[in-house]
Amino acid sequence: MKSKGIIESEISKALTQWEKDFLGRGSVSVKTDILRDMIIVNLRGVLAPAELILCKTKEGMQSIKRTRSDLVESGIETLGEIIFTITGEKIKSFHTDISTVTGERVMLFKLNRNLEETFEK
């Protein structure tokens, strides 16, 4: 059985590759944490410099949030496959948001069971 840290690292690497393949560019850094029945992924540097400039207006911010959300949501099937391949768990629900101030995205994968308790302490 793989350790919690190894699985978290594998998820980070796989999501970085997914971003590059699916969205055309990857984030600057990715950190994954497994907490109870959740996988929480923090992706830094997901917005392009032009998008950050566009986010200075309310309309631009809303447009970027909507577009980025639609892009990620359209890849949810593949994201679910990535999580299943690495953890053996199917996702029950998926939640995401992006900060137009910091350029960070948070992804939360809710699982059907407590994955954290399967690791040795």
Quickly list its features:
single chain; 121 residues; alpha+beta; four-stranded antiparallel β-sheet; elongated
Estimate the global geometry from the Cα principal axes. Answer: elongated
Poorly predicted runs: none
Number of strands: 4
SS-based class: alpha+beta
- Report the sheet-strand fraction: 15-25%
Q: Helix fraction?
A: 40-55%
H/E element sequence: HEEHHHEE
Please give the largest β-sheet.
4 strands, antiparallel
What average pLDDT do the residues reach? 94
Order of strands in the sheet with most strands: 1-2-4-3
The value of Rg in angstroms is: 15 Å
Description:
- Helices cover 45% and strands 24% of the residues.
- The protein has one domain.
- It is an alpha+beta fold and 121 residues long.
- A hairpin with a 2-residue loop joins strand 1 and strand 2 (38-44).
- Strands 1-2-4-3 form a four-stranded antiparallel sheet.
- It has helices spanning 4-23, 49-54, 58-73, 76-87, and strands at residues 29-35, 38-44, 91-98, 105-111.
- The longest helix has 20 residues, at 4-23.
